[in-house]
Design a protein that fits this description.
Layout lengths: L4 H11 L2 H4 L5 E3 L2 E2 H19 L4 H10 L20 H16 L6 H9 L12 H14 L9 H4 L10
């Protein structure tokens, strides 16, 4: 995909970061890495913000590309005993912590909200700003591909897949 120069200028430091590059090896949703998914969400959010003009384009782009910058690949992680501690509930906070650690100069209150609230309604507190709502929506749109893979639903719902005994 060819990306706008403006879009890339906002996130170049992130995309060139060694730790962020590791997300190319983290599977996210069927057939996409965390890196690819985050870039797709960021670009869709950026294009929406550009079209509708009343958005903070830079912050929406940065927040979107960092929204899933969590620590470790979730699909290989041991299952948590507590449902509320599963990936869907905790990764936004992890992504924010990781973003602050690696890109403190890019994190402001709006970017922080975008990252932290993108999992609404799974995370109970809704976004306050329109930029965070856009990223939340685009994340859902970009994640709908999982619906094409019903055999994988248990994994996304936090249940262990049962193996056939026969």
């Amino acid at each position: 995909m060819d990306y706008d120069i403006e879009f890339l200028s906002y996130i170049e430091i992130i995309l060139n970061n060694k730790e962020y590059q590791r997300r190319r090896t983290y599977m996210h949703h069927e057939g996409l890495s965390v890196y690819e998914h985050s870039l797709l969400v960021a670009y869709k959010s950026y294009k929406f913000a550009k079209k509708h003009k009343s958005f903070n384009i830079k912050d929406i782009t940065i927040g979107a590309v960092l929204h899933d910058f969590y620590y470790n690949p979730w699909q290989n992680a041991p299952k948590s005993k507590k449902f509320k501690d599963s990936h869907g509930f905790v990764h936004a906070r992890e992504a924010l912590e990781n973003s602050k650690k690696h890109f403190p100069e890019l994190i402001n209150p709006l970017v922080e909200e975008i990252i932290l609230r993108h999992m609404f309604p799974l995370n109970i507190k809704p976004p306050k700003h329109k930029e965070a709502w856009v990223v939340t929506y685009m994340d859902k749109v970009c994640s709908l591909d999982v619906l094409k893979h019903p055999k994988e639903y248990p994994k996304y719902l936090g249940f262990k897949k049962r193996e056939k005994i026969w």
